[in-house]
# Entry
Amino acid sequence: MTIDYEWRGAFDNAALDALHAEGFGASTPEADWEGRVRRHSLGWVCARDGDALVGFVNVAWDGGGHAFVLDTVVAGGHRRSGIGAELVAEAARQARAAGCAWLHVDFEDDLRAFYVDACGFEPTAAGLIAL
# Structure
């Protein structure tokens, strides 16, 4: 299996919606994923196995020194093979190249080993308000 990674790669809204639904349990088939990331993100990383979109991460930012990892997702049959960590690593490389000084991520406790151990994030205190 050879996985190709592409910063700001083209993708089909339906393919990303299917991947997102598989990873997060919710489908939004009317979502314009491409329009959304083009308007609001520093970039994104697509992972492909041949023509199939098997991974994705969005990198939002504040327009300055802070970038934020959102929606890291890998297709079920490709999980636990390093794709997620490579998606985040490419996101970090590209955020650094864009002049960002910080890459942030929020995650639930069950993803701590992935983000802290596999991806190298340092644990920090953070706050959250449910809206």
Notes: The helical segments are 13-24, 33-40, 83-97, 112-118. The first strand starts at residue 3 and ends at 7. Residues 83-97 form the longest helix (15 residues).
